[in-house]
Amino acid sequence: MTMGDELLLLAVGTGRRHPRIRSENRLRIALSAAELAELCLAGRIALGTRRIEILDPAPIEDRRLSNVLLGLGRTVPPPSLHDWLRLTPRSLITEYFSRLEDQKALRSRRRRDAAGRTRHDILSVDVPRRRGVLDRLDTVTRSGPGTPPADPRDLALAVLVRVADVAPAVYPGVRGAAARRRLAARTATGTALLASTQAAAPFGEGDAESPAAQTFLPAGQLANELVNLYSEVTTGDQGLAHHLDSGGWSDGGSGSHHD
To answer: Closest Cα to residue 258, out of 250, 248, 244?
Structure first.
């Protein structure tokens, strides 16, 4: 599973009678950020201050990620991080939902409502597989002084879970409050390290090449950009708000549709 697959699987809350996807408007762009994070950690791209730079254009094992890498390479001029995320297609959740269905990670049914719109009812989720992803996320929330450093991939996933507001689906209700606070604290530490690293040296120079910096740099950059994009929705950016209109997946028959 890619980081995007894992993020969507975590976003499907399982604490209700009918599973439902959490925070769809934010999740769509976070899925695109997950693709960039994975390409970054694979050494295929770098997130520059003005543009996304291709480091290695060779195809990779996952077809979806290879197509994203190909699209980045074909974009002229090279896209900025802001523009690439801002233009995330509305169909991205649908594409990842289909991927999870193909992998038997979840099961759904499609139906037409009275207005002729297609609705997707989530019937079941592969709980053991979701639990495996959650166990890795827990290694981030429980990390700290005296524990091994978190895996960079798991850290990036944890940052996206927090910023995209998926944490309430991962750690639901009052019982999950402590875990949500730990997640926020640990991912905030990563963003703080990003800021101190950039202040010490520009990207690609000096301390920015240290293992700790390389762990937090992509996750911190993506988190900052996602926060900026989400804030545009609430401050009257009509263009972005149009692309983030409400839509989604029904919880067994009472939700909204997704185009």
So the answer is: 248
